[in-house]
């Protein structure tokens, strides 16, 4: 595997970064890296997590591109280079995830790529990808959900946390930040350790934020938290899980400090055509940006899965 910083800290020479206009006119920043036609295997649409940017995954994109895949991604509206949904550009705000699902559905419909089409989602991107599949607005040949946000993890438990979030949303500006720093409140774990055990890969995101400061995002709003609790709870209770026939590979970090791995394992068990790969304490939340043994195992599993299910 190529783990050198130049791969992680440079836009591929033959890739493009542009903007795509959603149906309501919103401009979303997109990334496209086309495979050579002679060796093309199909297309991968990779969607990041909350407050994420696609630059953080260039190393994994290179792995798939070298294998013959065209790789595409776009920043969710409200983050990265796709504008903001609050007056404070530091706050990740959303009143509803429905516009994000609509963006994904429209993009998927317009995405011009030949061959098998694969949908991948990390964290919040995994939740939204699964929700879009359950709602029938995207129908990939195969999907990969990486540390998917199928439940939130917090210091007081999800039920009490959701009640608190709803109360706080009602008591003031719903778009105000839910906390000031770190990836979750009341955490004694450093932000790096919550995300990855690989310091150099962790520092990659700071490199990109220095290059383009406006793509950086901070904590979520109270409204975003309420929507995240409600949407993931509804998803776990969705009877359509039992009939979703799309082949799905789910990668879960059992020691994840940001999303609830138990919820992901439970959902995987209800999907009729899902494979589950679990990691122990060797992996934090960002599995594809972990230390080499973790990342290599994850990429190998994805390669094997795609070879079988996206031909």
UniProtKB/TrEMBL annotation:
Name of a matching Pfam family: Hydrolase_4
InterPro entries registered for this protein in UniProt: AB_hydrolase_fold (IPR029058), Hydrolase_4 (IPR022742), MAG_DAG_Lipase (IPR051044)
Domain of life, per lineage: Bacteria
Domain annotation Serine aminopeptidase S33: ranges: 41-292
Segment forming the signal sequence: none
Protein name: Lysophospholipase L2
Organism: Sphingomonas jeddahensis
Phylogenetic lineage: Bacteria, Pseudomonadati, Pseudomonadota, Alphaproteobacteria, Sphingomonadales
């Amino acid at each position: 595997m190529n783990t050198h910083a130049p791969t992680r800290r440079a836009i591929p020479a033959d890739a493009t970064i542009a903007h795509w206009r959603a149906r309501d006119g919103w401009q979303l920043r997109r990334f496209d890296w086309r495979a050579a036609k002679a060796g093309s295997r199909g297309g991968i649409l990779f969607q990041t997590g909350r407050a994420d940017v696609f630059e953080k995954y260039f190393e994994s994109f290179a792995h798939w591109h070298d294998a013959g895949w065209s790789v595409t991604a776009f920043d969710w509206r409200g983050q990265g280079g796709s504008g903001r949904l609050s007056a404070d550009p530091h706050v990740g705000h959303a009143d509803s995830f429905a516009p994000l699902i609509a963006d994904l559905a429209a993009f998927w419909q317009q995405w011009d790529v030949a061959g098998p089409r694969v949908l991948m989602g990390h964290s919040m991107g995994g939740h939204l990808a699964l929700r879009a599949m359950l709602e029938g607005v995207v129908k990939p040949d195969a999907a990969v959900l990486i540390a998917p946000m199928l439940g939130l993890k917090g210091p007081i438990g999800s039920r009490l946390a959701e009640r608190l979030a709803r109360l706080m949303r009602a008591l003031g500006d719903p778009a105000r930040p839910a906390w000031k720093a770190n990836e979750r409140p009341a955490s004694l774990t450093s932000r790096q350790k919550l995300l990855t055990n690989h310091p150099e890969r962790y520092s990659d995101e700071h490199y990109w934020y220095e290059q383009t400061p406006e793509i950086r995002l901070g904590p979520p709003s109270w409204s975003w938290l309420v929507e995240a609790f409600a949407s993931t709870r509804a998803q776990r209770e969705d009877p359509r899980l039992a009939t979703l026939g799309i082949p799905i590979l789910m990668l879960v970090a059992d020691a994840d400090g940001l999303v609830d791995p138990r919820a992901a394992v439970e959902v995987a068990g209800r999907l009729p055509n899902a494979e589950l790969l679990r990691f122990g304490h060797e992996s934090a939340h960002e599995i594809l940006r972990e230390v080499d043994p973790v990342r290599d195992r994850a990429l190998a599993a994805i390669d094997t899965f795609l070879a079988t299910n996206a031909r």
